[in-house]
Amino acid sequence: MDQGKNLLLFKYGGNAMTDPELQTEILRNICLLKKKGHSIVIVHGGGPFIKITLDEAGIESEFIDGQRKTTSDAMKYVEMALKGRVNGTLVSIINGMGYKAVGLSGKDGQMVLAEKRLHQRNENGKSTTVDLGQVGDVVKVDPALIDLLLDNDYLPVLTCIASDSSGTDYNINADLFAGHIAGNLSAQQYVVLTDVDGLMLDKDDPGSLIREIKLSELEKLKDKGVIQGGMIPKIDSCRTALEKGAVSARIINGTVPGQIAEIFEGRNPGTVIIK
Fold it and tell me: Is 119 among the domain residues?
């Protein structure tokens, strides 16, 4: 069955996850769209919870160019945080609202095939390869299991862990993981929940919000430094989603749950990116 024309994929993470009341409100707004006839998939990360879990285990977090180095010892706790702590909580909340959520990672049903990321670091004009441990990239997505769940009225909740062909597990950037899933499902809309109102020409001026932009125009904005910091992986994930088959991508403020409903009330919140 072709879910794409009716499918919405939400990437949920960051600060919008740490406040339990806000979390419930976000999930309620997402689930209302399911009630209105949309197929829903949620992909989540959980950086704050990974940090708490690693701290509790006495494992120090090391970041290289903004990416968490993940040793084999740390990987066990990363999975514990994402699959046990975060995924389990989201599934419980959604089920408590009367829907049928299923918690998964990319490992389940060999849904996502990963490979080790070889990070290139540029210093003083020289490029060196840095080992980030068990940090991976998405090689391939098989959406069959997600399609099966959607066909049977389940709401898949996915976290960003996947294995390579030999069974080694990898922690994958949640934004990029979500973009690959959205593209391979041909989502009608890929919606990234962040903690700002969208992409702005000047990050300090809310009035400079870009309402709509074409995929082909993004590179120019990156070169100008308009797209920077934490917005880079979000924009990259939107690019991946669109290039792999999603119809449109949108970045909205997840800390304002009402914006989720606004998407389908003709009020055009956030920044929409089109092909």
Answer: no
